[in-house]
Structures are given as structure tokens and as C-alpha cells.
Amino acid sequence: MAEESKRVLAIAPHPDDEVIGCGGTIYQHLQQGDQVQVVLLTNGDAFVWAHKLFTKKIRSKPQDLAEFGYLRQQESLSALEKLGVNRKQVTFLNFPDGHLQKNILQQLNKKGYLLAKLRFGQESQQRTQSEYILEALFFRLQKLIEEYRPQVIYSPHFNDLHADHWVSALLLQLLFLKEELDFIHYQYLVHWPNYPLPHKFLPEFKLKVPADLKKNFSWLSKSLSAEAVLKKKEALDNFKTQRLIRNYLLSFVRQNELFAEAKPLFIEEQLFAKDCWQELIYQEGVKVASYSSSALKGGNINNLTVYNTPLKLYFKFQLSKRKINNLIFYLLTPARQRLIKSFAYSDNAKGYEWRLMGKQLYLILDKTELDLPKQIIVGACLYQRRQLVNCFSWHPIYLAEAC
Which of 163, 164, 266, 287 has an alpha carbon within 20 to 30 A of 110's alpha carbon? Predict the structure, then answer.
């Protein structure tokens, strides 16, 4: 009896990520008779160094970058055609490249860049500035998913070092938490230290899960046929604008593709006890910005644990130094009008409180006052001069009631 075809959706932050992360898998889905749609969140039009190298221009004007983004769109369409994806099955959302994290977590925009996108963007994709916000992107994705009803979704990984990538994963996880949306969510990794090694074309090699990410995720290795490997290489060859990172792109042409499944941590309500803290982060947060060590003089987070009681939710941060500044704790949920609640250190307000005890920092949330739902996603970020310096693992959590 023939297996029923599946509806598959691939989410990519930039043109080329869909091929890097799951190009071979896309090809094999199509060969099996599955339906595949691809959504690209940005045009990749803020990669200034790639633009300079490709055009041999010293200056990259806003209009030049907008046109560069349109060229990257065409490259993506051509690459996907190599894999068998029809152009009508590809959607470009045209959100700001490199700005998803700033729009979503800090609500900050570089006006000149956004105005250039409004002025020079393609006619069918023009946006008002107010549309470059979390809710707009979230509901655009939600509408696409509700209409297409995919059974399998591929997106970037929670812990990917590129902010546009982990923001994409967070949005998909938020949608996954909505009860009426039911799909399998696989996450592919692109940006991580020394991944994959070596950075060159070695199609006879296999991708290996980074040791730092083995513990918190269940990983699936999907083997690629010889034909799928060849098609992925041919697809990546279409990205002429990315000659700056060509060897890096080709290092993903291997015998397999890796995908992680993020499963929520179930934390049952308990009476307060010292040994009931559940560990969320097993290592230091990864440095994601190239600031000098002086930028981190406020301290760092080595560990984050959580404790769930009937009335309150406790988060304990283990600090490397007693003093810490510019820390913001984020709580994401799709169940409320505002998708994100942010809690800045040293800012106490109704419903939550910060306490510093030695090198341990506590954030105490009143579950009733904040009207917290059962399913949430949490994470913590350190900022310096409004720039993200460190980001710590995002974790889906299910707050279970006591049995």
C-alpha cells in the first residue's frame, strides 16, 4: 500500500539557508511524492561584505542593498528549481535582514535601512514600517501554516548563533504551542563554532552533532542518496553572490542532514525544597557579538535553573561575578495578546521581583498576577550598548500541576 504524501514546509531566514539546512531532504521529499513549500523571512539584503565583493563597489547604498536582496531572491528560486521546487511554491516575506532579533526582542529599528526597503522594495512586497514587528511576522507565518496545514516543518535551530535563525525557531515553537496547529518541527543548524568541519567540499563525509548540543536535544540524521547530494551541490552553486562564504556553504554537502527536535521540559508544581530546582542550561551562554572583554565586565551567566510552585515561578541565575548589568529575561507565549514578556534586571514591578544573593540572582514571577499559561518558552540575553552580546539557550517549558 503506497504511503500517503505529506505536506512539508521549509522556513529559511535568508536565501540559501533552505538549501544549506535541508536541501537534500527537500529533494527526497519531492521524489517520494510529498508536497513542499518554502518560506523565506528576509531577502538577505544586509550582507554588506558579500555585496561589496560581488559588485566590487566600495560603498553599499541602501538602494544597492535592496537590489542585492532581489538578486538573492532570484538565486534562491533557481536553486530550489534544481531541487524540484516550483517557483509558485516559494514565498518571500521581505522582513529586515539581520534585524529580526532587534525588532522582536528590543523593538528597535534602523530607520534608514527600513525606509530604503519601503522605497526600493519590489512592488508586491512593500510594507509599512509598523509591519516590521513581532506580531506581524508571527501572524503572517500563522496564516501561511493554517492555510497550508503542513505535517512537517523544517526551520533553523534554537541555539543557532545567528539571531535571525534562532528568532525563526522561536516563532515556529510559539506556533507549535498553539493547540490547533499540529506538526512535526525539525530544526537544522547552520551557525555554530567549528561546525561543520572541515570547511570545504567533502561529500563523502557525514555531518556530526556538535558535542555542546547533544544533551538538550534529540537528533535525527537523515541519510541522503547520491542523487540528493549531487542536487544539493548543484543548488548551492546557484548562490553566486555568496562567493565570500562558498567553502562554508559547500561544507554542508555531506552524506546526511541533521535535525533536532525540541521537546518541552515538564516541571511539576512542588512545595519549596532545595533539591527541586531543574536545570535548563548546562553551559555558559555563547558569545554572539565581537565585543572586547570590557564589554562583559558586568558578569556572565553560567547556569540557569527553574522551580515551579502552585503560586510562583522561580528562576535562578548562577553568575560568574556578583555584579551584572544589562540582563533581560524573556518569557514567550502565544496564549496572550502580547507574545513576549520581558523582565529587565534591577526593574521590579507588579507580578515579578529580582533578588541578588551572592553570586545567585533570582527572578520570582507571580503566576496568578501575570496570568501565565501552562506552556511557555524562556531565555535570557545580555546586552551592551543596545547590542546583543550573549544569548542563552531557549527552552520550551510545560508547567504541570501537581498530581
Answer: 287
